[in-house]
């Protein structure tokens, strides 16, 4: 029996943005966490909704940051989308690509023909994140979809994490076409759909995978959908306030401030804890009072027990200076 959380699993599936790095800088401790897992014999996989890089490019990026990675360990929504479209249309079919060159390359390698105009009569539109995506290509995509092309979105993340705060993600770009056409994409490929997770587990031959992510609505919901345990780290998009109000389908098994939580005892990372060191919660109907002081993540774990059981997060108050300050920091 392992004395830490990660020891109970044979595969760690990492999200990237907000977990391992922010844009182009590694998050402190990420490289050390990956190497410790490898030393313990845990398999590693990286699953990302970002469709702007290919698997080999992601592996090179990670390696350049000091985080060990092989192309075969990387699964991207771009690669998954291209493979799915290739299964559903004839070889060589024209596909209008909205996104980065990496997505066009994946479509090309899948035996399809990337195009940029609705006049090319594309049978499908594949939309992924790309920093240069603008009105012209979005307009062509809208025209093609209206003409009958099947609309695939690599993912619908509304934002991307960055050191300056959340930035518009592919979901925001998908919303442009959704607004113009008053309809949803026909297919969403990436998280929270379970394919990236189940494929990672299958490739690794894993029986006990653990997903590590920073977003409740993609990483964690995808893991729940795939029937996998998950760890939410608070280094990216979703914060304590989000976790306290998370619906059942977006609730992780564990939460930690960062990847060092992988090496804490599992019972010190489990969410909705009944009791923790330093903090107490007293409930009175639909209200609760937090008292004491200590590790903020422990307070969060404890509070999830009452907010997930019906107490609105706005009805939680503090009864000590530390508790009041913590709740204020969380926006409560």
TrEMBL record:
Gene3D superfamilies: HAD superfamily/HAD-like
GO cellular component terms, A-Z: cytoplasm
Cited SUPFAM superfamilies: HAD-like
GO molecular function annotations of the record: phosphatase activity
Occurrences of domain GCN5-related N-acetyltransferase-like (ranges): 278-332
Pfam families reported for this sequence: GNAT_like, Hydrolase_6, Hydrolase_like
Protein's recorded name: Acid sugar phosphatase
Protein species of origin: Actinoplanes cyaneus
Top-rank taxon: Bacteria
